[in-house]
Design brief:
alpha+beta, four-stranded antiparallel beta sheet, NADP, 11 helices, Nitroreductase, globular, NADH Oxidase
Length: 252
């Protein structure tokens, strides 16, 4: 195996979220490399149904930080919001006197979510290769409508998540993830794996990880988080179906 391939695999397998950055903006070249990698991601049917908004205005950054409840949303070298975007395609179709109903179907949003997520992962991998840290911010969904208003998003768009980038000022341990024993099946989904696989060993790894963290140390585990599940549907996140409909994704 070549050294370059090993390097890429190491970047993927050793990735960890960085939440503390040095107080400086990314260089223009570093920012360009990250966004270029993002736009090079695979895309469904060549529709390229994802867009990115760079948030450079400190006031908007601070408002997003308040929505997210995370100070590092305002304190980073680059903040990008990844948008599932069918507005562009609908506008192009209208200019050609073609109003395709497909853009208002659930499959349209699913494809846009896939496109946009691949863009973000490319950006994350590019930043890691440049020794730049990053963290995904699903917390913008704490108040999706306010994010839509702040960023002046038109219909047929939806802010999936943000990503903060910066020169790392922290080196957290790698968070243990479920491996192929729990998540890789052959030919069909094995519903028995929940009963046949003992999660205790993995859960202990997660507990040890949280206990040993230098920052955000806490007494927690994978099983506890999944069983409680409340953090996934708190507050205004319950309004997302209505907001999607208002944005034009009305499932007709």
């Amino acid at each position: 195996m070549s050294q370059s391939i090993t390097h890429v695999l190491d970047l993927i397998n050793q990735r960890t979220s960085i939440r503390k950055f040095k107080p400086m903006l990314l260089s223009g070249d570093d920012k360009k490399q990250i966004t270029k990698a993002s736009f090079s991601a695979p895309t469904t049917q060549f529709r390229q149904a994802g867009s990115v908004i760079e948030v450079s205005d400190p006031k908007i950054k601070q408002q997003l930080a308040e929505i997210c409840g995370q100070s590092y949303v305002a304190n980073n070298g680059l903040l990008l919001v990844f948008i599932a975007d069918e507005y562009r395609n609908i506008a192009i179709a209208k200019e050609q006197n073609q109003e395709h109903f497909m853009y208002k179907k659930p499959i349209s949003l699913i494809n846009a979510i896939v496109d946009t997520s691949l863009m973000a992962q490319n950006a994350s991998l590019a930043s890691d290769s440049l020794n730049i840290g990053s963290v995904y911010l699903g917390s913008i969904l704490n108040d999706t409508q306010k994010v839509i208003d702040l960023l002046k998003l038109p219909k047929y768009t939806f802010p999936l998540f943000a990503m903060a980038f910066g020169y790392p000022d922290d080196k957290p341990d790698i968070k243990p993830k479920l491996d192929d024993t729990n998540r890789l099946f052959e030919n069909s989904y094995d519903t028995n794996h929940i009963n046949s696989i003992n999660f205790d060993t993995y859960d202990k790894k997660v507990k040890d990880y949280y206990d040993s963290r230098d920052s955000h140390n806490r007494n927690d585990s994978f099983i506890t988080q999944i069983a409680q599940g409340g953090h996934l549907i708190q507050g205004k996140r319950l309004d997302i179906a209505k907001i999607l409909s208002n944005q034009g994704f009305d499932w007709q």
